[in-house]
Each structure stands twice: as structure tokens, then as C-alpha cells.
Specification:
Layout lengths: L17 E5 L4 E4 L2 E5 L5 E5 L11 H16 L4 E3 L1
Antiparallel strand pairs: 1-4, 2-3, 3-5
Bound molecules: zinc ion (ZN).
Zinc ion binds next to loops.
């Protein structure tokens, strides 16, 4: 069962003001890349206060982000290697 967004708490500032946000255009670290820019739509919980992404422990969203990153890589997005 996925955790409901109301129960998520920001790992950075402790606020419970997570909001599903389209993170298209933002960069994420993934596998051997230090950053991969998302160029497809992807909605994940993001803290309204500090902007921290909070999808760790929310398994459904980990998979959603992973597949969005993979799609972006296939489309030839900007990446940075370590
Ligand atoms: Zn926060």
C-alpha cells in the first residue's frame, strides 16, 4: 500500500506540507550520473517550505521517478557524470 501524502514528512525541515509537484526540468542523481535532467512529466511529493523532494520510502514514486529518468535518458537529456 502506498503511503498517503498527508502522512509524509519532509526529511529536511520536518514540515508536513508535501505537495505533488511536476518535477519536469529538475535534475536528479541516478545510477552513474551525478545529475539527469527530467524532460518528461513526473509528479512526486515536494516540500512546499524548502523544496526538498520526499519520495524515499514511497516506493511507488521511486519507480515513477526512475522510469521518468530512463525516459529522459532515452530522449537524450542533459546529464552530468560523476
Ligand atoms: Zn522541507
Amino acid at each position: 500500500m502506498p503511503v498517503s501524502i498527508e502522512k509524509l514528512r519532509c526529511g529536511e525541515c520536518g514540515e508536513r506540507k508535501m505537495e505533488l509537484t511536476n518535477v519536469k526540468g529538475q535534475s536528479f542523481c541516478y545510477k552513474s550520473y551525478s545529475s539527469v535532467k527530467l524532460i518528461v512529466d513526473c509528479y512526486i511529493p515536494q516540500c512546499k517550505k524548502c523544496g526538498n523532494h520526499c519520495f524515499r520510502g514511497w516506493s511507488q514514486d521511486c519507480k515513477r521517478v526512475d522510469s521518468a529518468i530512463e525516459q529522459s535518458l532515452e530522449l537524450g537529456t542533459d546529464t552530468t557524470n560523476f
